[in-house]
Specification:
heterodimer, A: mainly alpha, MetI-like fold, 2 domains, 13 helices, B: mainly alpha, 11 helices, 0% strand, globular
């Protein structure tokens, strides 16, 4: 890259002040372009401003979460918040331990991954290694439809179809249970895992597969012992993004998984996730500015930090461990 | 030699391969089956509720009289305003990143930031909208506050889609324009944007179809669930289809679940129309260089 700002212009530079990037393509002065040049600068500034909005959004999120949480942590010690095993801000006997909400969130994330990871990955292997272009042309749009269905619709599906089904298999299960929420969250994340993993599998060069076939490997062996290991970084990155999505999922778990913060590993019990708690408070009558109200910012901060860490990790894995093929 | 041991193993390996293929196919079949069940489940409960009266009546405590007029109007308002805010900002940011930005740390920061924003849970945007638009700017619990929140939510997706569309415009087109003496902005405005526009519009429509199904951020900023009037200005309180669906689904009575299914039918119809529009646009105007 040449830095046109400081380098003297070829031919004496009598054309006046630095005219930015144009200099490299137009090394001569056309005359009376001052007004035009000002217009160009203003436009460039405006466009930069548009780009800045995204940075302002991030700053806004961090500032709002941190300042409002600071008010919360002045009254509730961070240690109590992070290690407490009871969450009951709305009861007369208040407890502010986030672990039950974290437990609920992780239970949903773990349960949904039991569905989304194997189904998503094997779907991706089928699309990338086995299916003909015609079959692919049918399956891809179906997965896109599945990905495009609003989460509140999955919540309806959980409550009116999945939950009755679970209650049929396990009589005595309540209307609200973690299993129902985990199942629909898993279903809604399948397309994401399938699509991202398929991209990773497609990036593996044909020559690797051909070499394995040449040694007499079957298609199964080529897929699972050559292609999948070669694409592992992309697959792992897609898995992490999927977990992050499951942690941030809100509507389906609010409708299906219940509103009982609880330390449990039982999928058939009613639980509450961090996201569902935030919705519950904002639907209620809690007055703005109270300690109870500030809990949503503290919980929101934890949610934001967890998903941010996972997204960064996923990007890092893609960048660091990607095998670069010719 | 090992050749004799090789043959029986081959049969077993072939069998394992066939089993694996069946398992993979079963995974695909699982997704398709679930989609079919979901659609049938919704259609069976909801289709008979969808009528002209359902679309033109306000919500009611009596299921037979309830409709989704305010939710449909609210969703239309929300779409229009969200598109109006996110489209110019997103395209502007994409033009800056693709055409103007130097390759330095600020650009890398912007790009990483956009990628990370795309992964922030939607409910966090709701918290942001509540603190910034509802309280700080004093928009109140209005259509405008909701639309501004959703605009920020879809902005990363719009930017990334517009960037892809701009990247697809060949450099030769820009060079030819510079060659006849056009300035940078003239080149972008008259050569690059017209070619990239179908791609940009497709991406924007797809991201808006995400916005129209969003529920959590709008609950956060306080979209009311029972609204028996039509919003007439950006400052009016509002409800939208997904919130109406949430509200009816959360009620214990089966009649309201059926109303929710009816509203879902309408929402899915709108989504299908939008997606079909995006696909037609892409196929019709797509140029290959």
């Amino acid at each position: 890259m040449t830095h046109s700002g400081s380098a003297p212009a070829p031919g004496g530079g009598s054309g006046g002040a630095s005219s930015g990037a144009l200099r490299s393509t137009l090394p001569f002065d056309l005359g009376h372009r001052a007004s035009r040049r000002w217009g160009e600068r203003i436009i460039a500034l405006l466009l930069f401003g548009c780009g800045l909005i995204s940075v302002l959004t991030t700053i806004g999120i961090v500032v709002v979460l941190v300042t409002e949480s600071a008010g919360f942590f002045r009254e509730v010690p961070i240690a109590e918040f992070l290690t407490g095993t009871r969450w009951s801000p709305m009861y007369s006997e208040q407890h502010f331990g986030i672990l039950p909400l974290l437990n609920g969130t992780l239970l949903i994330a773990a349960g949904s991954m039991l569905i989304a990871l194997p189904v998503g990955l094997t779907s991706a292997i089928y699309l990338s290694e086995y299916s003909s272009p015609r079959v692919r042309a049918v399956i891809k749009p179906i997965l896109e439809i599945l990905a495009g269905i609003p989460t509140v619709v999955y919540g309806y599906f959980a409550l009116t179809f999945v939950t009755p089904f679970i209650r049929m298999v396990f009589p005595g299960t309540g209307i609200f249970n973690a299993a129902s929420g985990a199942i629909v969250v898993g279903i809604m994340i399948i397309p994401m895992v399938a699509s991202l993993s398929e991209d990773a599998l497609n990036a593996v060069p044909l020559s690797l597969r051909e070499a394995a076939y040449g040694l007499g490997a079957t298609k199964f062996e080529v897929s699972t012992r050559v292609v999948v290991p070669s694409a592992l970084s992309g697959i792992v990155a897609s898995f992490i993004l999927a977990i992050s999505r499951a942690i941030g999922e809100t509507m389906a778990v609010t409708l299906a998984a219940g509103a009982t913060p609880k330390m449990t590993l039982n999928f058939l019990e009613s639980i509450q996730t961090m996201t569902a708690y935030i919705v519950q408070v904002s639907l209620g009558e809690t007055p703005h500015g109270t300690l109870e109200y500030r809990t949503i910012f503290a919980v929101g901060l934890v949610l934001f930090l967890i998903t941010l860490a996972m997204n960064l990790l996923s990007q890092r894995i893609t960048r660091r461990f990607r095998e670069v093929y010719e | 030699m090992s050749g004799e041991r090789f043959r029986p193993a081959q049969a077993r390996r072939r069998r394992a391969g066939r089993l694996f293929q069946v398992a993979c196919l079963a995974s695909i079949g699982f997704s398709i089956t679930v989609l079919a069940i979901l659609l049938v489940d919704v259609a069976r409960d909801g289709l008979r509720w969808v009528s002209w009266d359902f679309l033109t009546h306000f919500p009611s405590r009596i299921p037979e009289r309830a409709g989704i007029k305010s939710a449909v109007l609210g969703s239309l308002w929300m779409m229009g305003l969200t598109a109006g805010i996110s489209f110019p900002l997103g395209v502007g940011a994409a033009i800056y990143l693709e055409e103007y930005s130097p390759r330095n740390w600020i650009t890398r920061l912007l790009q990483t930031n956009i990628a990370n924003l795309a992964g922030v849970p939607s409910i966090v945007y709701g918290i942001l909208g509540l603190a910034i638009f509802v309280r700080f700017f004093g928009f109140g619990r209005s259509v405008l506050a909701g639309a501004a929140t959703l605009a920020l939510l879809v902005l990363p997706v719009v930017i990334i889609a517009a960037q892809e569309a701009l990247k697809a415009v060949p450099t030769s087109l820009r060079e030819a324009s510079y060659g006849v003496g056009a300035t940078k902005w003239q080149t972008i405005r008259h050569q690059v944007l017209p070619v990239a526009l179908p791609g940009i519009l497709t991406g924007t429509i797809l991201s808006l179809s995400r916005a129209i199904g969003e529920t959590a951020p709008l609950i956060m900023i306080g979209a009311l669930t029972f609204i028996a009037f039509s919003p007439t200005s950006p400052m009016d309180p509002f409800t939208v289809l997904p919130i109406q669906i949430f509200n009816w689904t959360a009620k214990p009575q089966a009649e309201f679940h059926e109303l929710a299914a009816g509203a879902i039918v309408v929402l899915l119809f709108v989504l299908i129309v939008m997606n079909a529009g995006a696909i037609i646009l892409r196929n019709k105007f797509q140029k290959r260089f």
